[in-house]
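Input sequence (254 aa), recorded before submission:
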Amino acid sequence: MLQIHVEPDKTALGETAARLGAEAIRAALAERGHANIVVATGASQFDMLAALVRQEGIDWSRVTGFHLDEYVSMAETHPASFRRYLRERFLTQLPGLGAFHFIEGDAPDTARELDRINALIARHPIDVVFAGIGENAHLAFNDPPADFETAAPFHLVQLDERCRRQQFGEGWFPTLDDVPHEAISMTIGQIMKAGLVVLAVPDSRKAEAVRDTIEGPVTPMVPASVLRRHPNCHLYLDPQSAALLRDTPQAVGE
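Predicted structure, token format:
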């Protein structure tokens, strides 16, 4: 079931999404003494991550983190590297974080890197995935038509033209030609295993994807639509990203 929330602006959206995720982290810590999370990157996550690191009552030393994706062959020093993004916006704000397992996109052997990160996450059942939705409704870097069946936690994907244009449009690359064509991405199946999925999706450029995710069929051509089958997923919108909805339902599912 996909629970839908429309907040007054993207700052409130980020704060509310972070607060819900923080509640789930505290609950996991209380129940098991440890929590495992996945965090996303990109412009849509700025406010959520800023709010998440401010949340009180979390013993971050008992939290292990992963991230959703990374470009293949990209050095961590590149301005568009998701490892760099997360070090600057998340890890440096939480010096006491227990552990964070990065996807090494520039590993010399991509197949071995997949084996490594897949083995790691298999030992860490995920309590919360913090994510967004792409302009083409991608989930992580699973562009349409997305693979809903792959069992592995991470896989190698090809980025489609609209996805690459989004990365260029957000200012991460000087030209479209500089945007990589391949990435390592968390799979749809792995995201669906999380206890809670928290989606922060602001801005008008996401309105079409939001409409298709909520109002259209569940289909690999709209990857994020699969989250209507998740038992505990919350989608946070602002008025701009919700603008194309016929109405604003509280929840949708199959």
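Checked by second reader. The chain has one domain: 9-196.
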